[in-house]
Amino acid sequence: MTIRTRIAPSPTGLDLHIGNAYTALINSVLARKHGGQFIVRIEDTDRTRLVEGSEQKILSSLAWLGIPHAEGPDIGGPYAPYRQSERLPSYKTYAEELVANGHAYYCFCTASRLEEMRKTQEANKLPPMYDGLCKAIAPDDARKRVAAGERHVIRMNVPDTGVTTFTDLIRGEISFENKLIDDQVLLKSDGYPTYHLGVVVDDHVMNITHIIRGEEWIPSTPKHILLYRFFGWDIPNIAHVSVLRNPDRSKLSKRKNPVWVSDYRAKGFLPEAIRNYLAGMAWSYPDGRDIFSTEEMIGVFDMSQLKTTAPIFDTEKLRWVNGEYIRNMDAASLRSALYAFDSRIPHDDALTDRILPLVAERMKTLAEFWTLASFFYEKPAETEKPCDRNICAELATALSHAEWTHGAMEQSVRTLADAKGWKAKDVFMQLRLAITGKTVGPPLLESMEVLGKEESLGRLSRYI
RNA sequence: GCCCCCAUCGUCUAGCGGCCUAGGACGGUUCCUUCUCAAGGAACAAAUCGUCGGUCCGAAUCCGACUGGGGGUACCA
Description:
Layout: E1 4-7, H1 18-33, E2 37-40, H2 54-65, H3 88-100, E3 104-107, H4 111-123, H5 139-147, E4 153-156, E5 163-168, E6 172-177, E7 185-187, H6 195-205, E8 210-214, H7 221-231, E9 237-241, H8 261-266, H9 271-282, H10 294-300, H11 315-327, H12 331-341, H13 349-359, H14 368-377, H15 389-400, H16 406-420, H17 424-436, H18 444-451, H19 453-461
Parallel strand pairs: 1-2, 8-9
Antiparallel strand pairs: 3-4, 4-7, 5-6
Helix pairs in contact: 1-9, 1-10, 6-7, 9-11, 12-13, 15-16, 15-19, 16-18
The structure holds one RNA strand.
């Protein structure tokens, strides 16, 4: 049997959540390792939280990240449609089937009654659960009320005795007492399924073999197990990966951290670096190295080695990983990544290729290119510190006679400093300020070589 | 409240009963290199393996309790 995995994001955010990217990567790696398929299914069943354009963002971020899918709403596939809002009749049929054989029932309770019920339960320190009022309605009566158009939902009929157990691929056996499982709503009054019905039906119908999702879903898994049993379906393999956390240890949230993939893209992170970092959050490379490609990961990936502890998303380490990738990139790739990232960079390949060796090892993100290299393109408006007129004048004279190579220029600067009894360090700093406008940056003389004699001396002369 | 998951340096982790006086990486500190900043090299600091009990000749590794952290408790996913 071919392995089929999936992610099922709901289009309720601005973009692909980094946590979704993390589970997507793991799902994708497992499928690829076994020559299977990784699919994307959009779970747009919450009409109130739907965000315009979210689905497109999710799909494009997934593509940008380099996590390709075999089937999805954008490219179709043998199990289309891949958008739950387009599969409504299916859920209704399955829910009705459950009602017919007693595993679910119609519920006519209003929102206000449910709210009151919960308040009472809370006051009495009871777990907030549906009290089963509508379960007592005779099936014929319930059917008549539905036929008459009364507003209703369909709830699953959870047995009130026994234990539901499942084996998590990375956590082992997990059990829940049935009496603590709520009679979950399966079909909402607007005709849309809840997550629980939708996910079970579609995972079955789409032949998903491995469900890999965040650990926040562990408590609802017994409901899903029960549904598989009610339907008489085989239960797929299930694994819950840890959630990513904020530095304060709470679940990663947009209030405390950037959570959208586009945030990281905008900050100048590379997709391969993000994938590498995310992979390291979930799993350790067998030989302990921190830098590895997704292809290398696929080669040695083992589900049972997935982490059980929820890691803190460490932006510093991500920056380091990104820097490693930038340093190891070939010039052409880095060049085009930069052009795509920052529109201010002129598409002058020859010039870019002369600048890159000077700045690439100083960058941790693509965004840092401009802060490091803008002086190559724009005359610095003013320096951070005032330049010494006398030193600048002497430098201009000395350099105007020097051969325009960094070696010769260095000789000339050092000779001047010696002759005048100035500290070479100070002279270099004056020159740096005059040329680049900053106290830090790429190697000065090499930079001046790129800038050219005329431009360099021109900048220097402004301070004379 | 109730249910569930988790627990090794600040952070990410290696470790799956003896190889551990606990190894690596990020970050930090110091030094080398050096025209600045990086990168690179060297070194240092940093974990009584959450606590307490067991099991065992032997436990970071197995079991239990507790504590701590996290998650879930919706006609949200």
